Amino acid sequence: MPNNAPALPTPILITGAGGFVGRNLVATLHAMGCRDLLLFEKDDTPETLADFCRRAAFVVHLAGINRPTDPRDFYSGNAGLTDTMLADLEAAGNACPVLVTSSVQAALDNDYGKSKHMAEDAIFAHGQRTGAPVYVFRMEGVFGKWCRPNYNSVVATFCHNIARGLPIQVRDPGYELPLVYIDDVVACLLDALQTGRAERDAEGFCRIHPVHRVTLGALAETLQNFAKARGGDAAKALGTDGLPTLAVPALADGSLEKKLYSTYLSYLPEDGFAYDLNMHCDARGSFTEFLRTPERGQVSVNISRPGIVKGNHWHHTKNEKFLVVKGEGVIRFRRIDSTQIIEYRVSGDKLQVVDIPCGYTHNIENVGDGDMVTVMWANEAFDPEHPDTFALPV
What we know:
This protein is α/β, with parallel strands linked by helices.
């Protein structure tokens, strides 16, 4: 933990530690250096739970049932386990804080919702009886890495299936989903653990923030575009030619699209982390686009053979950055209304970015003995309908 971070109350009892939220919370606590954890799972004994409840300085109750074969299991797995845990705490005289994750479905009249509501009521009653601080988090649909697909998360199911070229079902494209991201969930839980702070609504329920809202149709389209960007069989299954579009989405800090992109990549099959690029090769070398973004331009990799000159053109608005990472070269400029030629020596031995300004015709020559590799960034992705590229020797 950072030196200025509030100390964590330990040991921390975490029920359902092997579940989606539990795995992410435990991984974060471990990364913070916290190892004093009492991890309770469904196969552990009642005696283990009682011992953990006696020793705990803080309880994070994540265990629950989502999709049992018998609806009665909702009540034993949600309300019943909660009652047992609270009874163990009270029997031990342990009035430590108790945090429980519930669901917005607790307000609905179905078996899952009713069992969650019963667990919530039990936690609040425990706090009133014992004076223990209690935190009941009513959460929207949680998404992120390690969530089980084809279970109870549409995001996980869509990510898993789309990444593998499998079909998805979008029954109502206009249906709006409220979603919270796993990293935001963990951050809110940690805030309660470390400081006792939590954002509460008028009914006293703790809420995860921020909440993102997206229609089912927009969610599917966004994730499908991620697949198209990488190309391959997953893209072909969506009706494309399988060539990657190379599109990286807008990744504004905290945006839903950024969080969905990180989530999608975590569901790639283990033999599908890599994807091929379309190399444009000739006797001079090759030119390969690496990625495209909607508002941050395009990155490409240029390989030139010894003695080769590339470029000899200029742009009105497009500007570029050249970075030679291997070999030796000379970049030459001439303003189109001038005869003066400007030269920059570049080398992979001393990384230096050279800006290519508008209105200057320019070229790059490989003056070394081997291939020269240049990373090139342009402020806009190439559009063959509006190339903004005009041939003119330097």
